[in-house]
Amino acid sequence: MTDDPNARMDALVRTQGNALQPKDDAYDFIAIGGGTAGLVSTAGLALFGARTAMIERERLGGDCLVAGCVPSKALLHAAKVAHQARQASRWGVDVGEVKVDFARVMHRLRETRAEIAHDDSIDTAAGRGVDVIAGEAKFIGPGAVRVGDATINFKRALIATGGRPHVPDIPGLGEHDPLTTESVFELTERPQRLLVIGGGPAGCELSQAMQRLGCAVTVVQRGDRLLPRNDPDASAVLLEVLRGEGIDVLLEATVERIEDHCAHIVTTDGARTVPFDRILLAAGRVPNVENLGLQAAGVQAEPDGIVVDDRLRTSNRRIYAAGDVVAGMPNSTHAAWAGAEYAALNAFFPAFLAAKRRVIPWATYTDPEVAHVGSTLDQLRARDVQVDTLTVPVAENDRAHIEGQRVGFARVYLKKGTDTILGGTIVGPAAGELIVELAGAMTQGLGLYKLTKTVRPYPTRSEVVRDLAYAYGTGRITPTVARLAQWWIGMRR
Asked: Rounded to the nearest 5°, which phi and psi values hold at 210?
């Protein structure tokens, strides 16, 4: 076995250069793209006896395995360990000088990727009854695709080609070999000065990680806050944390041009010149819709992706789409998974599974984490929805207090005068885990107060959700209710 983890991963998931041919000229269901949506949809339908095939031009596993969730979280964990080691003296633990071996950090990242690759491997897919076909698929009609020299007919198809990093049009950018949120994981040497363009989830995560691993990081964000999809207070908390860790965050800033390893930036305070060793692009993603032959298939696409109805069906009723390639779809593995489930079932079964009814939370894995579910306050206000807002500071949570992680809050937006949950935000340790409680309640149609019935171990971070529910309950104790209760207690003495 080779010592190269990339080679070990490729041996499991790489289709490029592998002679994987279709076993038939017709299938019940094909997925174009071997990422999360392709893997989930084909394997799920194969369980019901459908003849399924997955067509992939590069690697199974998609962005999640190769250039997204898995490597990024491995990098974030290493950075957090380094940060905690530097903070250890706060707890009376002296570890001496903390040294980061960046090459070893990145090697471990790739080792982790290779270890997980088996779950997405060609052999695993085949074992689930899915034919894996190597190559690039192009529609040649409403019910057929061509892959190389082969023509494949299908009853139903799923477009799951994902997306790729957006490369902004900045003069001089191409001459400086910019990293993207995909290629950054192939680094072996640590840049001393890193310029990050973009302050969304990926930009914030990678900026904090690289700063903790020893880079000097500058973030350039076009908007007036980080994480623009999130609660403004969540953005403010994260901004303070990142700046407190030494990251230079420039808001309402634009990179005008790049030359001689210097970025010329325009801000509301005037012009700045920022020197750098490497640039990291984290300026969003664009859908992979080119060269698919969508016109031949009668599939409508817009600049932000393929247009689908609430069943995830395209303008061709035989073709569905899921994942990052869909217009308006959140760019996340779990959103792709959820979409693939519904698309596959809607393709063959009579049940109408509405994608818009699916409750899909999202999380940014900075430290502290930022998680959200449902509508944001900005969205609710735009729809003129009247809401009640409840907020509990993380500092009031005993577990967070004990561990010194006191930054953040839990917040819920309720339909005015009720405990119906319309949305919620959690900022703090394990926020990505805790948001599931609110997501579960929304999925099951449970009001916030029902969450008081769950007994949680003490001390745990989950008590912050309980405290939100109790805050609603205590808010219902009006003076009249209090007087009646006092009278009743007096009668029972």
From this structure: -70, -35
Average pLDDT, stretch 278-301? 97
Cis peptide before 165 (omega within 30 of 0): no
What are 126-131's contacts with CB under 8 Å, separation 24+? 128/42, 128/43, 128/46, 128/47, 129/43, 129/46, 129/47, 129/52, 130/42, 130/43, 130/46, 130/52, 130/53, 130/54, 131/22, 131/23, 131/24, 131/27, 131/51, 131/52, 131/53, 131/54
Q: Which residue has the tokens 């409403």?
A: 142
> Which amino acid, residue 396?
E
CB 342 within 8 A of CB 358: yes
CB 439 within 8 A of CB 453: no
- Kindly compute the dihedral angle of the four CA atoms of residues 166, 172, 175, 177, in this order, to the nearest 10 degrees: -40
Beta bridge partners of 26: 153
Quick one: pLDDT at residue 1?
Answer: 59
Q: Which has the closest alpha carbon to 309: 332, 343, 359, 344? A: 343
Q: At 27, which helix (H) or strand (E)?
A: strand 26-32
- For β-strands 248-250 and 216-220, DSSP reports them as parallel
Contact (CB, 8 A) for 254 and 222: yes
The H helix count followed by the E strand count for the chain is 15, 24
Rounded Cα distance between 142 and 337, Å, is 25
- Return the pLDDT at 450: 96
Stretch 200-217: mean pLDDT: 98
Exposure b/e, 415-446, CB count within 10 A at least 16 = b = eeeebbbbbbbbbbbbbbebbbbbbebbeeeb
> What HEC string does 424-454 produce?
EEEEECCHHHHHHHHHHHHHHCCCHHHHHHC
- Confidence class for position 486, pLDDT limits 50, 70, 90: confident
Which two tokens mark 410? Answer: 């839990």
CA atoms within 13 A of residue 179's CA, in its CB half-sphere: 25
Residue 443 · residue 432 · CB < 8 Å? no
Strand order in the sheet with 278-281: 179-180, 278-281, 193-197, 216-220, 248-250
- Give this prediction's pTM: 0.95
Please compute the mean of the pLDDT values over residues 239-262 and round it to a whole number.
97
CA dihedral 329, 335, 338, 341 (to 10 degrees): 70
Q: Which of 345-359, 368-382, 465-479 holds the top average pLDDT?
A: 368-382
- The CA-to-CA distance between both ends of the chain, in Å, stands at 79
pLDDT (0 to 100) of residue 2: 73
Alpha carbon separation from 40 to 145, 286, 344 (Å, rounded): 21, 22, 9
